[in-house]
Amino acid sequence: MAALELLSDEGYRADGRRAAELRKVRARMGVFAQADGSAYIEQGNTKALAVVYGPHEMRGSRSKALHDRALVNCQYSMATFSTSERKRRPHGDRKSSEMTLHLKQTFEAAILTQLYPRSQIDIYVQILQADGGNYCACVNAATLAVIDAGIPMRDYVCASSAGFVEDTPLADLSYIEEASGGPQVALALLPTSEQIALLEMNSRLHEDHLEEVIEAASKACKAVHAVLDQVVRDHVQEVTALLGD
Amino acid sequence: MLGNVVRVAAVAASGGGGRLGSSAAGAMLTSRTFLKRTRAGAVVKVVREHYLRDDIPCGAAACRLCGARPAGAGLEARPAGAASHLCPGPHYLLPDTNLLLHQIDILEDPVIKNVIVLQTVLQEVRNRSAPVYKRVRDMIANPEKHFYSFTNEHHRETYIEQEQGENSNDRNDRAIRVAVKWYNEHLKKMKNEENIQVIFLTNDRNNKEKALEEGITAYTCEEYIKSLMANPDLVDRLACISDEGKEIESGKIFFPEHLPLSKLQQGIKSGIYLQGTYRASRDNYLEATVWVHGDAEENKEIIIQGLKHLNRAVHEDIVAVELLAKDEWVAPSSVVLQDDSQNEDDIENEEEKENILKASVNKNMLRPTGKVVGIIKRNWRPFCGMLSKSQIKEARRHLFTPADRRIPRIRIETRQADTLEGQRIIVAIDGWPRNSRYPNGHFVKNLGNAGDKETETEVLLLEHDVPHQPFSQAVLSFLPKMPWSITEKDMKYREDLRQLCVCSVDPPGCTDIDDALHCRELENGNLEVGVHIADVSHFIRPGNALDEESAKRGTTVYLCEKRIDMVPELLSSNLCSLRSNVDRLAFSCIWEMNHKAEILKTRFTKSVINSKASLTYAEAQMRIDSAGMNDDVTTSLRGLNKLAKILKKKRIDNGALTLSSPEVRFHMDSETHDPIDLQTKELKETNSMVEEFMLLANISVAQKIYDEFSEFALLRKHPAPPPSNYDILVKAAKSKNLEIKTDSAKALAESLDKAESPAFPYLNTLLRILTTRCMMQAVYFCSGMDNDFHHYGLASPIYTHFTSPIRRYADIIVHRLLAVAIGADSTYPELTDKHKLADLCKNLNYRHKMAQYAQRASVAFHTQLFFKTKGEVNEDAYILFVRKNAIVVLIPKYGLEGTVFFEEKDKTKPRLDYNSEVPSLTVEDTTFRIFDKVKVNIMLDASNIQHQKIRMVLVEPKIPGKDVPANPTTEASVSNEPEKKKKKLQK
Fold first, then answer.
1. Domain Exoribonuclease phosphorolytic: where (chain A) (predicted)?
2. Tens of pLDDT, residues B492-504
3. The pLDDT value given to residue B966
4. Any CB–CB contact under 8 A between A231 and chain B?
5. pLDDT confidence of residue B9
6. Residue B352: pLDDT band by 50, 70, 90 thresholds?
7. Pairing, β B494-496 against β A119-129
8. Which of A5, A10, A209 is closest, CB to CB, to B149?
9. How far is B80 from chain A (nearest CA, A)?
């Protein structure tokens, strides 16, 4: 049996999208009352939940405190039911630790941490269902949660992945596209200033193609930004309407 | 995926246009959920998103409802296909999967246009047959065919869910019908004067009935094709798929059943069956070998004997075999058997023949023997051959005899047997039921009269899979515009070497000159030698259509009267050809050497040269020899010649082999292009002079690119043959009291030099010819994928091809690598991908092998033409091999090899005694051994026009009871002994 065709000659991907199209994005802010900020996002079948606490005083060892800015503390985890075979450890494995580091790096670049010296901001994200682009869904969810918490940021951080199949860059990879083993780029972008917060790539890609793929990923990030911005505006409108009562 | 068990409920989620990135296309989201079994055996649930869209165009040119027209031709606004009396109005065709799989030959006919290929169908075809999928894709890409592929699975209105209790085949059939209905309604909305209809073609009875119930116009392929008014001959090309009805016709079952694939896979896993490639024997239709895949040391090669054990496998199929018990093992037979029975169901005859094979054999000659239990993958292709008309005049079923003897005869049904008789035709196999002695097939194409030079050339090109269509417009569009001249930009990384006294030496009539040489004395007393190779990679840029086409062709194929170019003629014979007195771009390899031919310095550069003379080998030789000539070109040649001799000696001292293979050259009549004389090729000192420098350049370049790119240098290696290959050579030499040492190339070369017999001067050449047959094939490979680089024949640790980029694609890649290495060009992704390079090497090796076979076949055909005009001749010959019932002889004068049979049909069989140890064959009282000199009568056997062949009959020594032409009609007119010829093995 021939392997799955990732991009047909007619230009459709296995799930019916075109090369530059994103999966359907749906998001909600303020899903939990007890946390300072929270958000839920669906990108296709990838579902993520983000919760933010802080900024608050340092917990645990005070020696970690930074005298000139806030410490961003992240934790990435995957629900045991998020994949088609049950996961044993929700967090703490190598992959999750790596993701945690990436998230930390991304949000240290975006949050105006110098406003809160000697304090701490906690960002907890969990993947509820994994179908490709886990990192990107986490970043997008966390952005909304940080906004929900009212923590000042330079800009939204929007993330999207991009791959490269048959000389065409594909935006927002799904799980089957990721699993095919082609090159994959994950990009976290500050869309208005077009500054890159994080860029990660795995497997080989010729440098001639790199620019195209990054271009595709950053276009996708901007598209995600439009959606997130709408979600935030809708949320704010809803909240003010409630307050106005 | 494995066992797609259930497709459970699909949840349709919100219809409110989800935002899809930059495009504003409205789309609906649904998800497909199904269970699947993983490799480990666990059952997991898989959920996939499935987007439904409403922006997928229908492909009809006149449609204004669908927005953006897709790229490509699409369907015609007024489909002007072949007129059919079933559906006189304008219509599009929509075939189902099986129709596409089985009747692809018909659909490829230019008459069939405006076909809608659904995604459902296309995916099924893709999963079931890669070659058919490729052909369908090609048709969709062809703007003249007006094929359109409609992505129905993602269209909002044509996507359907699998229903409870419906299997996926039924679901797909329903999806196809839904799409047909949608098309019909959609096309009605166009409000044209005439309504275009979509006609559903299916050979499945149930499906057709259901379609008719739903109000869809549906026909079987046969009905539709028969209704075409202008093209009655198309009917012959219908594949005859055996219905159940036909199978009852003859109750006789010839073959055991094939096991289903699942059982085979289990058996292979557990080791009961072995998987391998089936290779039919060329000489014996009742025997085949299976090359087992994998690295297992033992049972690598399994013999299959007898019709039942062969069990309908066809050459090149991937099969599963079961080993027989050891007491049933047989030895490979040395009998030559051809399938020539006229009665097609004559099974007794077969059994009798099978018994011949089982004649008593030496115990230690027994080899693993097996039987085919199932076919894993068919590797059928269209076959060239001829029709053997049935003796019954009105019969419609005829047997077709392929040109390749390894392919069984094929039964086809045709009404035009009378016109096809004596023509070369192409036939495709459709199937091979258990009750049929021969496979069933259908007629595809008529090539022309058998025996015509054009037809025969076409046949041998097709049979050897040589791409020989004229270059397409897309390819030609990448040629430089004429008039062409060298620009400033071209000179950027180039050295101007136009002042050098460069000349080229080639065979007479050569128009694709890819190498030129120069040699001059430097002020320090050393010599500067330059090899200048046409800079083809300057014109063929990576990745464009021209590059892809040349990569596909791989090599230029030289036939006796024709050349199939790898690159278009403008390049091969003009812009890249290093002709004299014009400026040409070159890639130069320049050495500084001392007078002992030791290399002091090597450098590579792109350059511009202006050749001062293009000489033939004879002309160059003449210049070197004539003392009176002292011009620059001649001095340069003399310098080169002197160095070449030293280089050659060094190489031979290192253990390089000098081998021999008979090679002939035809003298053609200038007008009819018929061969009028045969001559063995003659080699001059200058041949070896040019060759020596080419070898040196190749080695230098190989070293350079390997140093620079250790992972992806394209190199060429020649593996040392396994010692057992030499058995026959050692035995043969022993029979003449000579010893051949084969433990190393050097020992072999030395013992070959010593193997002289004063009474038998030709013996040495014969030994060298035999040695050549023992050798392995030299191959291209990618340095990152292999670690044995040695070139056995040349005794060089590293080697590549650099010197003939006009006629070999490998050289173009080497040029690109070298250009990057010296910073004259930039790299590109494919060049630095060792897997892609390895794939390329595979293709190049295949094309080279096929080109060689095609060349040999062309020589064989021209030899036949030659003997046709010449009539019978008697000639001296030497025995090359001894077989069980025949001897293979070589006629040095014509470089012709042939088989002399001792058994003839309808004649008493002589007493044969074969001794495999010596080996020798005793016929009555005469014993034949390898290298014996005999006299044979050569004639063209045209009694069987299917396979014209050169027939050889023994004249001397006389064998009692054998008919020998008492008076040979003509004694060979030319009587001088052929010159001793030597040729190095194919490097």
1. 21-152, 155-220
2. 888 898 888 899 9
3. 42
4. no
5. 28
6. low
7. unpaired
8. A10
9. 25
Q: Could you give the residue ranges of the DSSP H alpha helices within B792-935?
A: 809-821, 834-870
Residue A184 has what pLDDT? 92
**Helix, strand or coil for residue B771?**
helix
User: Which residues are CB-neighbours of B888 under 8 A, at least 6 positions away?
Assistant: B879, B880, B881, B882, B897, B898, B899, B900
Which DSSP state fits B450?
T
Partners of residue A172 in chain B, C-beta under 8 Å: 21
Quote the longest CA-to-CA distance of chain B. 97
Query: Token pair for residue B703?
Result: 């070293």
Q: Which of B177, B197, B244 is nearest to B60 (CA)?
A: B197
Residue B71 is predicted with a pLDDT of: 58
Contact of A197 with chain B, judged by CB distance below 8 Å, is answered with no
* pLDDT reported for residue A28: 94
Contact between B196 and B146 under an 8 Å Cβ cutoff? The reply is: no
Global confidence as pTM? 0.66
Contact B151 A12 (CB under 8 A): yes
Q: Yes or no: say if B730 and B740 are a contact pair by the CB < 8 Å rule.
A: yes
- As a whole number of angstroms, the distance between CA B387 and CA B400 comes to 4
DSSP designation for A81 = T
Tell me the shortest Cα–Cα distance from B46 to chain A, in angstroms: 7
Backbone angles phi, psi at B155, to 5 degrees: -90, 135
Specify whether the CB–CB gap between B311 and B375 falls below 8 A.
Answer: no
| Whether the predicted pLDDT of B984 surpasses 70 | no
Chain A's closest residue to B832, CA to CA, is A206
Band (pLDDT 50/70/90 cuts) for residue A30 is very high
Residues in A touching B29 (Cβ below 8 Å) = 24
**How many Å apart are CA B776 and CA B785, to the nearest integer?**
19
Residue A155: predicted pLDDT: 94
Higher pLDDT, residue B978 or B624: B624
- Where are the strands (E) in B414-461, listed by range? 423-431, 440-449
Q: Which residues of B touch A (CB under 8 A)?
A: 1, 18-23, 25, 27, 29, 31, 42, 44-53, 70, 119, 123, 126-127, 130, 133, 137, 140-141, 149, 151, 153-154, 828-829, 832
As a whole number of Å, the end-to-end CA separation of chain A is 63
- Find the helix or strand (DSSP H, E) in which B532 lies: strand B527-534
- SS3 of B109-177: the string is CCCCCCEEEEHHHHHHHHHHCHHHHHHHHHHHHCCCCCEEEECHHHECCCCCCCCCCCCHHHHHHHHHH
Q: What residues contact A164, with CB distance under 8 A and at least 6 apart?
A: A170, A182, A183, A205, A209, A212, A213
What spatial distance separates the first Cα and last Cα of chain B, rounded to whole Å?
Answer: 46
Chain B residues whose CB is inside 8 A of the A16 CB are: 27, 50-53, 151, 153-154
How do beta strands A71-78 and A119-129 pair? parallel
Q: Which of A9, A171, A174 sits opposite B21 (nearest CB)?
A: A171
Q: What is the pLDDT of residues A68-116, one digit of tens each?
A: 999 999 999 999 999 888 888 877 889 899 999 999 999 999 999 999 9
Measured at the CA of A182, the angle between CA A180 and CA A185, to 5 degrees, comes to 120
Residue partners of A30: CB distance under 8 A and separation at least 6: A37, A38, A39, A148, A235, A239
Confidence of residue B489 (pLDDT cuts 50, 70, 90): confident
In total, the C-beta contacts within 8 angstroms joining chain A to chain B are 88
Cβ–Cβ contact A206 with B under 8 A: yes
Q: What is the DSSP string of A160-208?
A: EEEEEETTEEEES--HHHHHTT--EEEEEEETTTTEEEEEEEES---HH
| B736-752 per-position pLDDT tens digit | 777 888 777 788 888 88
Sign of the torsion formed by the C-alpha atoms of B82, B85, B88 and B94: negative
Q: Is the dihedral of CA B318, B323, B328, B329 positive or negative?
A: positive
- A25 and B70 within 8 Å at the Cβ level: the answer is no
